[in-house]
Design brief:
Length: about 475
Amino acid sequence: MEALLEQTARRFATQVPAVDFWSLRLVSERKESLTVRQDVVQPPDTLVNRGALITVIQDGGTGYAATSDLSVSGLLDALQRAREWAVLTTPWSLLGTQDHPRCAGTGGYETPVAEPWEGLSIAEKIGQLQTASRSLKVDDRIVDWWAWLVYRRIDTLLVSGDGAWIEQRYHIIDPGLKAVANAGSQTQVRTGGGARGALQGGMETLEHLGFAAQGPSVAEEALMLLKAPECPQGSMDLLLMPSQMALQIHESIGHPLELDRILGDERNYAGTSFVTPDMFGHYRYGSTLLNVTFDPGCDGEAACYAFDDEGSPAEPVFLIRDGLLQRPLGGASSQARAGLSGTANARACDWDRPPIDRMANLNIEPGQGSIAELVAGIERGVLMDTNRSWTIDDSRNTYQFGCALGRLIEDGELKGVVRNPNYRGISATFWRSLSAVGGPASLEVHGVTNCGKGEPNQMIHVGHASPPCVFRAVEVFGGGA
């Protein structure tokens, strides 16, 4: 924990005037971004961000105020503003006085790191990026290519008038490779090396993600897609690889199960949900093969933590078990409003935002079988890999997704590559068509780094782990974006 955060919290705690309840959440972030594009080093980017959010409960109302002035006087000014807002909101409070979450726990978390970011000089990191960039330029038809590496270290300290003291430090690595191939009017893009797969950890994650090795294959696949035929159209089986499963989970399970969305909080901005509070405990969300867990303790995923930003201790729970809907993604505040058990997932994107219901690590539990065995069980279908485009309605029900790469499957065998594969469906029925889930050896960890919701907007990172999955009789079609 940064010494400044601890000193600031201790000084502030001795000066707080009498209120029903207060909490102080301090955040300090350092972000470094390195990019090599077309073998040219781009200007490095460094961000340092530090501030505090104060929450006050007074007379049954809740108020927030944020500040980057971490002096005692600056924090006390913010506390006074939060107290004024709490009093003003009392007549319209959604919670009774006894239902407001009041963090009182102690504990901490730090991402396990084997090879620290600071262990390599900037010259050594850029050298790795230059090598990766050069490996992408395998043909003159590769018209654009780049390699990037982003590191974030985030320190948070949550303290309260009820005795909470929660220290957490996150180390996040977000690398990637990208190749753009062009021939005439046809342009195709492939990514790899960890793109859209941010992980918690240190530089050791690069080897796990195949960052140094995947450049040539990323470029070759982009070239292959230039000559590939369009994806066929029709109702057929669909084998989704983990890279695409991540977004399918995110959009058609994660967002619909956010409890604040179910309660209507997001309808003016990000929409509502086809899920209603009375569905929990009995609604068939998917086939009996669908088992979905909320697991903030799964080492390596982007959203590992020990406590959420309201101070609730985090533990793994099933959201969907054997296809039946069990509980929503709702933090303590939303649980009190809805009268439902939820999860420790009230999260804020930064120091100037209050926590709201967010996904964290949302995973599909493995089943049985290798990828080869999944393919062998398909008579006619398409394998799809890596998301390219998506759209989904305001209730997170009717959707359409496009992928970067497809491969035909005929009589249990992989055939040729097809380009611009797309599929569409309805969330409420799509998951019930799940017919096979890959085994533990096929499970991969991916993530989403740009999940946005809330007013004002909060953009946050989440993790998704999944094996490849097979769905029966899905509407598949081609067509470029």
